């Protein structure tokens, strides 16, 4: 559920103009969704439907850190969960990258072949899945996001 707010943000980005405030207006919806998750997770807002639909245990605090899955270096993570993270991350990122390329928002100089974009996006997804599998349960969403961001800066150059 919360994964989709990022995709909504990037898909609607192109509908906003180049004014300095546009990025903040576009980011308002995922930001408000995040604040709602935090408010429910901390117990300030009661939203039984959100807790039932976004948690595995029915514990509202799970909204603050996500559900825990089961890998050799981290018994709380699974190979299936890490594979799903890598595949899902790649498919979502590839869709966004291709959409942004199509409308001219992403360029890499002389426009490398599609295989370069695919390989670079796959590398970012694999780094994300690897970092997500580390034994930092309370911070895995944050560390994964930062790792993918840094990897994309390094590989894509922006």
UniProtKB/TrEMBL annotation:
It comes from the Eukaryota. This is Uncharacterized protein. The lineage of its organism: Eukaryota, Viridiplantae, Chlorophyta, core chlorophytes, Trebouxiophyceae.
């Amino acid at each position: 559920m919360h994964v989709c707010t990022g995709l909504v943000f990037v898909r609607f980005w192109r509908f906003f103009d180049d004014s300095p405030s546009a990025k903040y207006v576009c980011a308002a919806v995922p930001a408000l969704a995040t604040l709602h998750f935090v408010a429910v997770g901390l117990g300030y807002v009661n939203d039984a439907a959100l807790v039932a639909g976004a948690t595995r245990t029915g514990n509202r605090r799970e909204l603050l850190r996500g559900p825990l899955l089961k890998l050799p270096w981290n018994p709380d993570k699974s190979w299936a969960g890490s594979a799903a993270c890598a595949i899902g991350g790649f498919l979502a990122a590839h869709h966004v990258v291709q959409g942004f390329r199509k409308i001219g928002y992403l360029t890499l100089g002389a426009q490398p072949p599609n295989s370069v974009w695919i390989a670079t996006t796959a590398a970012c997804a694999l780094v994300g899945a690897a970092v997500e599998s580390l034994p930092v349960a309370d911070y895995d969403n944050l560390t994964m996001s930062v790792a993918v961001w840094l990897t994309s800066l390094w590989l894509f150059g922006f």
